[in-house]
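ingest -> fold -> write
write: protein_1
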Amino acid sequence: MAKLAKREARSQTGLFLLEGPQAVAEALTFRPQLVVELYATPTALERYTDIAQVAVDAGVDVEFVTEHVLETMADTVTPQGIVAVCHQFPTSIKDILRPDHAGVGPKLIAILEEVRDPGNAGTIIRAADAAGADGVIFSGRSVDLYNPKVVRSSTGSIFHLPVAVGAELDTLLEKIHGAGMQVLAADIKGEDLLGARQKGLLERPTAWLFGNEARGLSDEQLALADRAITVPIYGHAESMNLATAASVCLYESAFAQRSSTA
């Protein structure tokens, strides 16, 4: 199980590691068919009795292990007593962009282009989930979706909304435009987010494009988007963390879209 901390092992097996009571509970509740193995210490299961019940309801057996054994399985230094092995379950871009039964297409999507930090990637998935986004797409050489830290940082949101991986940006954005969505690139050189809101731009179906933490988006990548938007800094901070900026952008769109249909 410890081998699943390595990307090569995850690619070969099609499995990934899930740690902690919150993430395991979300998997058992929303995607129980993905859980291959579930391990817990007796102490942890006594502490998280709700997980024991959810596992029973989902028909998933719990195998008891000692603290020492569980520590060898887990990726974290201080695991919380519960670890699971799950099947990977990437979604296709086509599924994310497909209109619903009423013929309504997606309204809000997050695209991660070469986002390398797993904590940022997982937090953006969580923010997209909270903002009611229709999906998240990892493009370019972004971090592996099933990296243990990405999974932990999403705090279970990875099981709530579709996430596609492996897209090439130019082809992806053609499909996004074909689905009737605008592409807004989050970039320091862009126009002010407040101004975009006042113009009514954020009410439209939108795919937000977020770039690499250090380099951002290249001029060529920005040219593929409809507009570049920046989150203004009103205080003295030198910059804003990518995941924080992404959360602001996604929520601004969510607010605008819901206000326009209220």
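write: protein_2
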Amino acid sequence: MTNQNRYIIFYKPYGVLSQFTQDTPTRSTLKDYIDVPNVYPVGRLDWDSEGLLLLTNHGQLQHRMSHPNFGHERTYWVQVERIPDEVAVKQLQVGVEIQDYRTKSAKVRLLAEEPQLPERNPPIRFRKNIPTAWIEMILTEGKNRQVRKMTAKVGFPTLRLIRVAIANLQLNTLQPGEWRDLTADELKLLHNLVFTGRV
């Protein structure tokens, strides 16, 4: 590990693309928030999702964390339409068929109360005759729009999606649009996890 490696976590706001290049004049990109040369996101978050994004210039770490064989945990808080029952939660836990793919088993639970999160801009569509609920989903894979496809498959469409953790990294006090370098402790844990499989 050399000193010039950078490791950044960023709280990606809603409506921001997980890339530095702009392919449409109407959408913000990482360039609007992060003025650090040569760092790139590890994986991605859809433009309409929010939360933790890890960026680095460490190619080997980026490769290991992006490779399907690695399977590090990603934690999401998901606001869904209506209140999922035990059957739906169980389906999400054991895996569902989305298109021609069956999702791996996941840790899924209904959150007892709404998490304390910054307001989304713009806010979700609100329909007073349809309740919403929050679930926590911990996945070890990251297919395209997977969480949204999974909740829709069991009958509870996703309204808001926030990634709150990647492996041992957490948003904690970061606010949307803010970023910081990893602490030495965070980096040590992450390196142990990625390169030795231990924490």
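write: annotation protein_2
The longest strand covers residues 158-166.
The mean pLDDT is 91.
pipeline exit 0
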